[in-house]
Amino acid sequence: MKPVYQRPLLKISGEGLAGGEGSGLSPTVIQGTAEQVRDIHALGVELAVVIGGGNIIRGMTAASQGMDRATADYMGMLAGVINALALQSALEQLHVETRVLTALEITEVAEPYIRRRAIRHLEKGRVVIFAGGTGNPYFTTDTAAALRAAEIHADVILKATQVDGVYDADPEVDKTATRYDRLAFEEAIQKNLQFMDQTAIQLCRENRLPIVVFDMSVPGNIQKVVEGETVGTIVSD
Description:
The chain is of the alpha/beta class.
């Protein structure tokens, strides 16, 4: 099936890479994620990835426990770089050419983020992993994903989560919560729905950048979304 998105940006949470362990890196999850990325890359799309670092440290959580917020956020960015390198290694073992570009300058392990270089890598058929968030504290990796997607002219953000879409309440707390199939940016902002932070949603709205929220733990879901099947929730104008 022909993909409906030609340049998707996949946003993966760090927590999702921990598997059932709760923290750290699960080799099984990393391998499974790499295989799903390989499969959609094989469709001929220009794929970018943004990874968080919440499986190692969450800046806001560390700050709430007394750590300086800026320091905690920088630690979270470095955790994201660790996750990016792990995914890059798994992808290269599957013979998928991959580049890690980081907002923090760590030239020994990754290229610095340069917008035109990132686009050129995509045009050459390489998977590009954006790491290190925006390079600034006080911004989430959701915002980094929205920013990078806008910069590289992505046509969609694929927001991979552990739930099967966006609900009007927390489905783990409220068993009567209703899942949306489609959702307007305006409604998501007005109701303060928590599938992404508000800054990221506003940025996507301003750039008319749709978001698909779906459960990545189901094998094959990423490919289904890229091929246009109805999976999860579509957030758009």
